[in-house]
Design goal:
Layout: H1 3-21, H2 36-41, E1 45-51, H3 60-73, E2 77-83, H4 89-99, E3 105-108, H5 110-113, H6 140-146, E4 156-162, E5 164-168, H7 169-174, H8 190-202, E6 209-212, H9 219-229, H10 247-258, E7 262-265, H11 270-278, E8 284-288, H12 290-299, E9 307-310, E10 323-330, H13 336-350, H14 353-363, E11 366-367, H15 379-384, H16 401-416, H17 421-438
Parallel strand pairs: 1-2, 1-3, 6-7
Antiparallel strand pairs: 3-10, 4-10, 4-11, 5-8, 5-9
Helix pairs in contact: 1-3, 9-10, 16-17
Length: 460
């Protein structure tokens, strides 16, 4: 029996658990043990939660179960939900801002909550939520990503993951390319990557992998591939400017643009790459994580090949994977009662271990603090758990991030069309740092100033 069939069973069991989790009776969170007087003092409040599709936080029936549990505990608070996607979600937020109708709560990552809307002054400071005992256990790297350079916390985290890539193990085996993979550690070298691609091409696989660059969707995969190949960096360590224009990154892009079997596709996004991989048209995909595998299992139960998740190849040392962090932010609408009600919702979801475990399971990712038994009996999640050790810097909070993402896929398109790699890289870095300076974060190398410290992991 292939791993594919076993994984279908695991995912089905997880789906059943998620669907029923909200129906179970939950303990009140530690902060929810309120007196009758305190309960009576709370005003009836209607809240809006807008959520990007973070696992089953984008599934209305599952979220409804959690809301039922919340409203049994807090009947005076009513929560309505709008489900966003990554194609139009930012536009809807921008429109709501223009109309003065921003929601109370939003579920997303630091690149939007902290570096984006936080820098625009739209978010409420959540520092008081970080004073709880459980918040003290949140991983330091996650804490840093949720805190703005001004010291305010604009996100309270729910879950995290490490994005990876994936290969068609059956194709690799048929081409004699499994010898180039360390299946135990899920790592491989840049030279092994090159040898594997060459072996697959020699075995008749014309399209081994694509560098998708039709837009920003899934760009965490192409960034991680390029920077890992020869140890390049994307931003400086303090997240004030972009330092991609380096010999290491230029070498990586020159390798990819000249390697037979790897093609630049300016019509494709990460989702298109995943679809082609699942259809057996590609031997590897760079836009991947555990949530993608679960989704493909549900969408394509007839798949009969073995998907092997892998870290990105490196020339030396351990890989550095792009992390994803998702959590809650509160738009500051000037109404303290609604802000406090929104904080109560966040506490309900995250402070009690039992309720928090269910909320994390809904995400299909990992907790941001220790819950050691959460996936103890889940073969699929245990398999992907190996990648957490390779989690790298969360640089998505660098100023000018949205414009830098656009400059990234534009650069890849130019390279695919034949523009000199060094020239395209130089143009990318100039555009990205121009955006960073406009956002008040970057300092030019010419200025001679030391960069200011700016603390700071998904995928959209």
């Amino acid at each position: 029996m292939k791993k594919r069939q076993t994984t279908v069973f695991v995912a089905a069991g997880l789906a059943l658990l998620l669907a029923g989790c909200g129906a179970q009776k939950t303990e009140a969170p530690a902060s929810g043990a309120q007196t009758e007087t305190e309960k009576e003092a709370r005003k009836e409040t209607s809240l809006e939660l807008w959520t990007y599709p973070v696992g089953d936080w984008g599934t209305s029936s599952v979220v409804a179960n959690l809301l039922d549990s919340f409203q049994k505990e807090y009947p005076e608070y009513r929560v309505s939900v709008q489900y966003l996607d990554y194609a139009s979600g930012d536009e809807k937020i921008a429109q709501a801002k223009e109309e003065g109708k921003l929601p109370d709560l939003v579920l997303e990552g630091p690149e939007r909550l902290v570096a984006g809307w936080g820098s625009e002054g739209l978010m409420a400071d959540l520092s008081d939520l970080w004073e709880s005992e459980n918040a003290a256990g949140i991983y330091e790297s996650v804490r840093d990503a949720c805190r703005h350079g001004n010291g305010a916390y604009y996100e309270f985290p729910l879950c995290m993951t490490a994005h990876c890539m994936v290969v068609n193990r059956d194709m690799f085996e048929a081409a004699g390319a499994l010898q180039y993979l360390d299946e135990e550690s899920r790592t491989w070298s840049t030279e092994d990557f090159i040898s594997a691609v060459e072996a697959l091409v020699e075995n008749g696989q014309e399209n081994v992998g694509i560098i998708y660059c039709g837009g920003q969707g899934g760009d965490q995969g192409t960034r991680a591939l390029v920077t890992n190949l020869y140890g390049g960096m994307f931003t400086d360590e303090d997240h004030t400017k972009y330092v991609f224009n380096s010999p290491e990154n230029i070498q990586a892009l020159e390798l990819l643009s000249g390697l037979e079997g790897i093609h630049f596709d300016k019509e494709a996004l990460g989702a298109d790459e995943i679809e082609q991989f699942a259809a057996g048209k590609l031997a590897m995909a760079f836009c991947w994580n555990v949530s993608q595998e679960i989704t493909q299992i549900v969408k394509n139960p007839e798949l009969d090949f073995d998907m092997l998740p892998m870290a990105f190849p490196t020339s030396e040392g351990e890989p550095t994977l792009q992390g994803g962090i998702w959590g809650f932010g509160i738009f500051d609408n000037g109404d303290e009662d609604r802000i406090e009600a929104a904080k109560t919702f966040i506490r309900f979801v995250t402070e009690n271990d039992s309720q928090y475990a269910k909320a994390v399971l809904m995400s299909t990712y990992w907790p941001v603090r220790e819950l050691p038994e959460l996936y103890a009996n889940d073969a699929l999640m245990s398999e992907y758990g190996i990648f957490a050790q390779y989690m790298g810097d969360y640089y998505q909070v660098t100023p000018g991030w949205a414009d830098a993402r656009t400059a990234w896929w534009t650069m890849l398109q130019k390279i695919g069309d034949g523009t000199d790699v060094a020239e395209a890289v130089e143009e990318f870095e100039a555009a990205a740092n121009s955006a960073a300076q406009a956002a008040g974060g970057a300092k030019t190398q010419e200025s001679g100033s030391e960069p200011e410290s700016d603390p700071g992991a998904g995928a959209a």
